[in-house]
Amino acid sequence: MKVCMVMSTPFPPCDGIGYHVYSLSKVLMRNGHQIIVITRGEGGELTIGEFEGINIIRAPFLPTYPLHIWTHGLWADRHVRACLDDCDIVHYHTPLVPLLSHRAPAVVTVHSSMIEEIDQMESGFFLRKMVLQGMTRTFTRWYMERTLRSANRIIAVSTSVQEELRRHFSIFDNVEVVPNGVDTEFFVPNPEPLENDYVLYVGRLSYRKGLFELMDAFERVSRSSDAELVLCGKGPLRPVLEGMAKKKGIHERVRFTGFVTRQELLSLYQHARAFVAASSYETGPLTVLEAMSCGTPVVVTRVGIMPDVIKDGENGRFVNVGDDISLSNALAEVLSDRENATRLGTNARATMLKDYRWEGIAARMVALYENAAYEGRRSDPRFS
What is the domain count for the chain? Predict the structure, then answer.
């Protein structure tokens, strides 16, 4: 089967959607399928390349929201129509990807509806935020509905995204949840005894991530524990968080890593006593699955994919959104009770192996592709 993946984020990957497409494509290719990735380039030039065997077409792209969707689509259509003609499936990864001209059935994976995500956007000029919210609830909503109506199959990456689609769009009872997967062969537990005591956060240093609550919670935990807090990632809140740590007197125990390589990230997961994701809104995140695959106990809020994955007290711990006290209590428990922490981590790893390996996710996706292709042939007069 020849599958064209259409996305609008950089490739090679540097974000959640990119790694989703990359990981799915690699498994599909191992199983004999052909993959083409169409994504945005830089400026007005078309580039054709390859990354780890994946063919990549980067169409010209100008970052002028929302007009970039049409310009990206026009340029992509102009240059890739020939390669789309013999595709069996065109798989769109939303949000805000261009709709292309093709005969092949379309599958749409919704990574975010953007409707509720925009309400959690980073603080900034009030007028700018109001304009973006208005555009999202009008243009983006209209374009997303148009994209969804073009699809033979619609996939949400979590139950929470599925529910968002039902709340904000005049459809869809046929949305199937196919979650993100994790590379369980790369993200493996550390075979050696842990020597470091630190709590790990991985992600953007931005407002919706619960980082203020995490700093408050860690300050409380630090009174009875020698653990450190490691914040891995970049973002606008770094100077604010550095100031908070200094003001609270914990700056010598809070470490900012900035961007790290994938190998360095693996090591951080493997040696952490606990992983924390205290976000107020998420559609994922992949980082929770990666930490669990490494056998690291996770403390998370009930947002995004987490309610689909976590059974509280069995393979992780839930805390309330915005509640630094419940967060500090859960972290203190994981740090102090090593036997229970080991049990949580072992069960987390088992959950990933059972339900979230990319091989299993890819098999479900191929079944959806085959159903969409069958329906496409039935409705195509060339096959009647």
Answer: 2
